[in-house]
Amino acid sequence: MKILLTGGTGYIGSHTAVELLRGGHEVVLFDNLSNSKESVVAKIEEITGVRPEFEKGDLLDKAALSSLLSKHRLDAVVHFAGLKAVGESVSQPLLYYATNVGGTLNLLEAMREANVRTLVFSSSATVYGEKTAVPYDEKAMTGHSITNPYGETKHVIEEILQDVAASEPGWKIAILRYFNPVGNHPSGLIGEDPEGIPNNLMPLVMKVARGEIPELEIYGDDWETADGSGVRDFIHVVDLARGHIAALEKLTDGVQIYNLGTGAGRSVFEVIESYERLAGKKLPRRVVGRRPGDIGVVYAAVEKARDELGWATELTLDDAMRDTLKFIGQD
Ligand code: UD1
């Protein structure tokens, strides 16, 4: 298959490109480089021996998108591109709706024009909202208690995709709800490299490990969990990337929704313990109050992806930690 990856030089896009190329597919990476670097293209070539095509461009430039889709004879699109900083989305909601929702509308229109109706969309467990019981099941109601505009954009896009698929035959769409992606490629060549100050746990642990931030702030040790810290479903990005290939190979008419997670929760203290054991160093940390809008425990129900896609995670939190330490040169 020839597949367009929007956001293709980003964290999850680049790892998916590697898995697709290894599977013998052709890929075209499309990215505006707002949160990634063009040098990723050469790294993907170093890992796979194949140089993916790269097209610099923005989803908000509809004309460029249309010419891109008419130029390449694509079989499918995997749509990763979007803004994802929760805090920034609260202060700049219009930017988030314009970029994430507006960009997706342009992409869907360009796909219709080019008669490409096969799409895999990067969604998030955030669409379940804070009142959902664990494990989060694909059948749970979504969109009812989302705490920020970033999460709302993911929910709105999911609704748009349902409407588009219902409007005419031919659409084959998979919505993948990611839990907490962590880790990097084991080669240490590509990985999560956010611009500015990150707000997710693993990049922050790495900033502390490199001495760029004095200590990790733990957002509460009074949650109803075994050790009191927050619990999440941390999924290795290589497992996550492989989930996209499984979804592409099993696409059927209409919209299918799958959680991509491990099915097990691990705590913030367990993440710190993994770092300290594998790095052989203490991680400076301090317990502070809970973060506004935070949730105690989140993990995925994974039976649907296992049964229908034949996909399950194979890598562990320690694998993710080891690969991340390699990426930052501390292995
Ligand atoms: C967050 C977002 C979610 C988004 C996801 C993207 C919130 C409330 N949720 O999810 O909408 O889809 O990022 O990846 O912002 N933690 C600390 N100290 C830190 C950072 C995090 O203790 O400095 C804890 C958190 O309280 C949480 C866990 O680590 O228990 C994971 O946090 P994070 O990486 O931000 O992910 P989510 O909260 O799951």
Short description:
This protein is an alpha/beta fold and 331 residues long.
- On the 0 to 100 scale, the average pLDDT is 96
The low-confidence parts are none
**Rg (C-alpha, Å):** 19 Å
Span between termini: 36 Å
Name the features.
single chain, 331 residues, alpha/beta, 7-stranded parallel beta sheet, two-stranded parallel ribbon, 11 helices, globular, binds uridine-diphosphate-N-acetylglucosamine
Describe the structure.
With 331 residues, the protein is an alpha/beta fold. It is 39% helix and 18% strand. A seven-stranded parallel sheet has the order 3-2-1-4-5-6-11, with helices on both faces. The chain has a two-stranded parallel ribbon with strand order 7-10. The structure holds uridine-diphosphate-N-acetylglucosamine. Uridine-diphosphate-N-acetylglucosamine binds next to α7 and β8.
